[in-house]
């Protein structure tokens, strides 16, 4: 008769086993908004000079509550929930008197955003000559104008919101994948009318961070329960409150960090406008601020946005 159990498993290179069968212990997952989630674990029984069980840049998938069925010594796996999916980026080795082993560090899909330079499409640019005839067409460039989007039809460009710019950056990071994309796009909440920002050679991750500068209450995360993981970006007002009972015996450690350091005393926006005075061009600078009366203390000047 088959026997069943539930537990954690790891899939890598087409092989699925329990952490114990892989020879690893103490997996720790760390989730970071606007950064690379991490999964670290150790293979304490491995020799320091042994070949890593998980190759560099291979994908690992960690399941929890996986149903494990043993039929005559043959194990099959089903159900459960994906807890993490990511790339192995480090395999540090350590040896000391009486102890040696391998460690592993895997990172979530934000790695792709950190490692590709964002580009936008330029319409009808000069592409050189062909049989003596100049040719024009579309070309991408890392000289980009954030807050400005392009389309395939006239008028070809126009203002876009911060959320639309985030989606454009995400799609650029997904563009190299014809199949097997490492993540999908979910809810993108911010949708602010932002000023156009001319920049060069920045990554898709930097684009997203620039957009969220205008929405400091927004958080990003990957939902690993979907396949592939789903990228979400939502502001505080749209998040679901979670009540956690501290007396239930589940919480072993708790750290709360009030973020007074990201609270702003006010917002100031300066507008430059060129006009004509007595036939001469003249520059005017206008200020829009909130609240109407800004704090006057010296220290508050360092928390204005």
Quaternary organization = single chain
Largest sheet: 9 strands, antiparallel
Order of helices and strands: EEHEEEEEEEHEEEEEHEEHEEEE
Rg of Cα set: 26 Å
Global structural class: mainly beta
Question: Which descriptor suits the 3D outline?
Answer: globular
Record field, number of beta strands: 20
> In percent, how helical is the residue content?
10-25%
Number of helices: 4
Amino- and carboxy-terminal Cα gap: 67 Å
Low-confidence stretches: none
Strand content: over 45%
User: What is the count of distinct domains?
Assistant: 3
Structural summary, described in words:
This protein is mainly β. The chain folds into 3 domains: 3-108, no CATH class; 116-240, no CATH class; 268-303, no CATH class. The protein is 10% helix and 46% strand. It has helices at 19-22, 110-114, 162-174, 204-212; strands at 3-12, 15-17, 25-30, 38-43, 59-71, 74-78, 81-90, 93-96, 99-107, 120-130, 133-141, 143-146, 148-150, 157-159, 184-188, 197-200, 218-223, 230-235, 267-277, 280-290. The strands form 6 sheets. Strands 1, 2, 3, 4, 5, 6, 7, 8 and 9 form a 9-stranded antiparallel sheet that branches. Strand 5 (59-71) and strand 6 form a beta hairpin. Helix 3 (162-174) runs antiparallel to helix 4 (204-212). The chain is globular and about 95 Å long. The model has no long low-confidence stretch (mean pLDDT 89).
């Amino acid at each position: 008769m088959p026997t069943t159990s539930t537990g954690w498993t790891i899939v890598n290179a087409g092989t699925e086993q329990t952490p114990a069968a892989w020879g690893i212990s103490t997996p720790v997952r760390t989730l970071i908004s606007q950064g690379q989630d991490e999964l670290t674990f150790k293979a304490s029984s491995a020799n320091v000079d042994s070949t890593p069980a998980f190759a560099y840049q291979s994908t690992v998938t960690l399941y929890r509550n996986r149903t494990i069925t043993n039929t005559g010594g043959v194990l099959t796996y089903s159900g459960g929930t994906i807890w993490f999916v990511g790339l192995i980026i480090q395999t540090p080795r350590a040896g000391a008197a009486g102890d040696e082993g391998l460690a592993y560090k895997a990172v979530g899909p934000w790695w792709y955003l950190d490692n590709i330079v964002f580009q936008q499409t330029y319409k009808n640019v000069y592409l050189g000559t062909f049989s003596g005839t100049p040719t024009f067409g579309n070309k991408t460039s890392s000289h980009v104008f954030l807050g400005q989007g392009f389309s395939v039809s006239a008028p070809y460009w126009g203002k876009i919101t911060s959320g639309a710019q985030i989606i454009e950056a995400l799609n650029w990071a997904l563009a190299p994948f014809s199949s097997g994309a490492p993540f999908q796009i979910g809810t993108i909440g911010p949708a602010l009318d932002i000023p156009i920002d001319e920049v060069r050679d920045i990554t898709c991750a930097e684009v997203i961070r620039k957009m969220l500068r205008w929405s400091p209450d927004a958080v990003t995360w990957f939902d690993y329960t979907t396949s592939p993981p789903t990228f979400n970006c939502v502001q505080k007002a749209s998040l679901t409150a979670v009540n956690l009972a501290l007396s239930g015996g589940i919480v072993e450690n708790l750290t709360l960090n009030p973020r007074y350091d990201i609270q702003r005393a006010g917002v100031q926006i300066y507008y430059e406008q060129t006009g004509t005075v007595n036939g001469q061009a003249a520059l005017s600078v206008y200020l829009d601020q909130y609240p109407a009366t800004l704090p006057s203390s010296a220290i508050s000047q360092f928390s204005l946005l």
